[in-house]
């Protein structure tokens, strides 16, 4: 799932936190029925069509409760599933299967929903040069999982957090006294290897950003026609990004503007979950 060792450690801590949220002391319903280890098997079934994402996280939830839990996956990460498809079978202590069910499904449904929505949106950009980006509009403590889901769905990640890149937005610019001064201060402070992105809202601001030497210019909440004019004005002197209330429903109107990137907070804040369920739990 997450190659860097540090990301795996972070993911584990977040999963443990989610488990503690759901099991403060015990699963009283399960423990009332099963007093000791009882082996069982349950099926993971897709209840809707979409892109599966989060299988390693789903698996890790149960492994953290009991390393002996075994899995047989019939679908690979990033593959399409259809309604009624058997995605996996999980075998282990019934107490673990029941106690971990909701947390595991919450991750899997949320991540699969984001991957599905992203894949649908990416398909609308076919034939254009524009790349689809996510944003920092993520669920608190879910960013590492939600941005991963965007990549599985075929999208690209914008900066991960505030430490990851320079992006001068309207309030930065206003407080600094203008675009030119904001870029100058950023150049003085940030390492020379850092690109500087500037958010603009009109053609005059766009002109200022170009003259200030911005590396990337974000065209925020502009109309398609305004974006075309901005891209022509920039004329390759900076990369261009379209942003502002971009959804699957309106992204087609942006493509012809000629921007390099299109960022959409909807990928992570508005994607519906993909309905999945654990069913047919039986003793073995």
Q: Which labels suit this protein?
A:
single chain; 284 residues; alpha/beta; Aldehyde Oxidoreductase, domain 3; 6-stranded parallel beta sheet; 4-stranded antiparallel beta sheet; 11 helices
What best-fitting shape do the alpha-carbon axes yield? elongated
Which assembly state applies to the chains in this document? single chain
Count of individual domains? 2
CATH superfamily placement of the largest domain: Aldolase class I
Gyration radius, in Å: 23 Å
CATH topology of the largest domain: TIM Barrel
Helix content, binned percent: 40-55%
Distance between the termini: 30 Å
In what range is the share of β-strand residues?
Answer: 15-25%
Q: Please name the CATH architecture of the largest domain.
A: Alpha-Beta Barrel
- Number of E-type strands: 12
Strand order of the largest sheet: 6-11-10-9-8-7
CATH class annotation of the largest domain: Alpha Beta
The main sheet comes to: 6 strands, parallel
What number is the mean pLDDT?
96
Provide a count of the helices: 11
How does the helix and strand content classify structurally?
alpha/beta
H and E order: HHEEHEEEHEHEHHEHEHEHEHE
The low-confidence runs, each spanning 5 or more residues with pLDDT under 50, are: none
């Amino acid at each position: 799932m997450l190659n860097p060792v540090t990301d795996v450690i972070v993911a584990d801590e977040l999963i443990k936190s989610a488990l503690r949220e759901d099991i403060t002391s015990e699963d009283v319903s399960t423990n009332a029925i099963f007093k000791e280890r009882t082996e069982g098997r349950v099926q993971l079934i897709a209840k809707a069509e979409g892109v599966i994402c989060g299988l390693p996280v789903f698996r890790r939830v149960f492994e953290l409760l009991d390393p002996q839990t075994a899995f047989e996956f019939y679908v690979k990460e990033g593959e399409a599933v259809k309604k009624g498809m058997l995605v996996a079978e999980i075998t282990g202590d019934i107490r673990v299967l029941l106690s971990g069910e909701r947390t595991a499904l919450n991750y899997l449904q949320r991540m699969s929903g984001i991957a599905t929505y992203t894949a649908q949106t990416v398909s609308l950009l076919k034939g254009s040069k524009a790349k689809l980006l996510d944003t920092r509009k993520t669920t608190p403590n879910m960013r590492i999982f939600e941005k991963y889901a965007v990549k599985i769905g075929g999208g690209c990640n914008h900066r991960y957090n505030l430490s990851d890149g320079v992006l001068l937005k309207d309030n930065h610019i206003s407080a600094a006294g203008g675009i030119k001064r904001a870029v100058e201060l950023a150049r003085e402070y940030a390492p020379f290897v850092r690109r500087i992105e500037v958010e603009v809202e009109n053609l005059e601001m766009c002109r200022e950003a170009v003259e200030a030497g911005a590396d990337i210019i974000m065209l925020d909440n502009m109309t398609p026609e305004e974006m075309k004019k901005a891209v022509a004005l920039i004329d390759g002197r900076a990369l261009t990004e379209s942003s502002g209330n971009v959804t699957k429903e309106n992204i087609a109107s942006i493509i012809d503007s000629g921007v390099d990137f299109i960022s959409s907070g909807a990928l992570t804040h508005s994607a519906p979950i993909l309905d999945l369920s654990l069913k047919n739990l039986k003793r073995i």
